[in-house]
Amino acid sequence: MKKLNGTVIVTYRCNARCTMCNRYKAPSKPEEEISLETIKKLPPMYFTNITGGEPFIRSDLKDIVRELKKKSDRIVISTNGFFTDRILDLAKEFPDIGIRISIEGLEQTNNAIRGLPDGFNRGYTTLKKLREMGMKDVGFGMTVQDVNAKDLCPLYELSNQMDMEFATASLHNSFYFVEAKNIIHDRPMVAQNFEDLINRLLDSGSPKKWFRAYFNHGLINYIYGQKRLLPCDMSIDTFFIDPYGDVMPCNGTKEKWVMGNLNTQSWDELWNSARADEVRNKVRHCDRQCWMIGSASPAMHKYIWKPAWWVVQHKFLRFWKKKKYSMYEIPAVRDYRDGKITKEELDARSTCDLCAVADNGLSAASKEQLRDGTTGEEIVAKDLARQHLDDGRHA
Ligand code: SF4
Ligand code: SF4
Question: In the chain, at which residue ranges do the beta strands (DSSP E only) sit?
Answer without folding.
Answer: 4-9, 45-51, 75-79, 98-102, 138-144, 165-170, 238-241, 246-248, 260-261
